[in-house]
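Entry for the shared binder. Reason: the reviewer on the internal report wants the predicted structure included alongside the sequence.
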Amino acid sequence: MDCAARRSPVGQRFLESLTLYANGTVRAKRGAMSGVRTEVGFLRTATGRELTYAVMGNALGSGIDFWGLKQELLDAVRDAGF
């Protein structure tokens, strides 16, 4: 995902094409393949600032909840007061 796409003339349409979740504060695209989990997107902080992020988990062992841990991270960043 490219920040240039977000700032282009079709940037709002691009943003709206992404999955919306976390009470409307995250728009993102997920990906997965053998042992790899990824997500890239935009996070709206508690102060209204839009941040771009990318997270990846590779060679994850069984019992690791990547999506849950990723959500905890995004929640902490969102609420940190940026």
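Summary line for the report: The first strand starts at residue 19 and ends at 21.
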